[in-house]
Amino acid sequence: MKYDVILIRYGELSLKSSYVRKLFESTLIHNIKDALGQENITHRIAKERGRIFLTTEEITKSLSVLGRIFGIVSCSPAQQTTTDFDAISEHALGILQPLLIQQKSFALRVTRTGNHPFTSQEMAVHVGKYIVDATHAPVDLSHPDIELFIEIRQNTTFLFTEKHRGAGGLPLGTQGMILALIEEPSSLLAAWYLMRRGCTLYIAATKQMSNELINSFLSQWYAQAEIMNVDTHSKDYIENLSQIISKNDCEAIVTGYTLQDPTSVVSKMTQLKKQFDLPILTPLIAFEEKEIKYLSQIRGIDR
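The chain above was modelled as a monomer; its predicted structure follows.
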């Protein structure tokens, strides 16, 4: 199936004030361009409120990249046409006809943005009848085998059958600086949750951590972070962390601490709180080992 464009959706950004939303949209678009540039993907980007449109010849490769950019909720490869009833019907049939085999059922999900001389329901009825007449496929609005989404936005219509899930959250770089204390691979998972909230990282990695693993993780999520190696047993350990925090205006410290060993964790957290007047963030604190292992694997962290 030949696609013309990728529709990119974001979530929380649309709830912000006009000024903040524009700022966050600009950062998200910058992050998308930067990630696609790293992968040498030629592209063009346009946007409307609530949507970013990516035009490229490398649809499949672009979808893989977009799924690892924070702030993107989902994206769909789509065909685009006008808002003419017949044009939409022909595109819909072209998409569905190869898929409606062995008596598979279908449903149309039509939405509109803007002013049009027809309703979403009228469009759905017209296009649905056109497809049924051509394919004799059954319509099932509750549990269809195939869903075709028809998104009408002003003078352009987008048709698609897939919604690829994104990382969600806020665009990287829209929030403050966080010191990530990376003592083991699972600490990178804790850092991931702060990146997903738009935070920029400064990484303090202990000697047992491989910089190669850290850089591989950052590269996978199209993130950049300065890395400083620290020795937890050195008498200068706390001083080194203090200098990092002061120099980079860090607003919190994130760790990979969990309650697998409660006594040790409470002791470590107590020591950090005594030394630093900053929030100590522990996003993995209630996770079980098997959850951490699974999440680390799907986030590209080799444990």
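DSSP finds nine helices and 13 strands in the chain.
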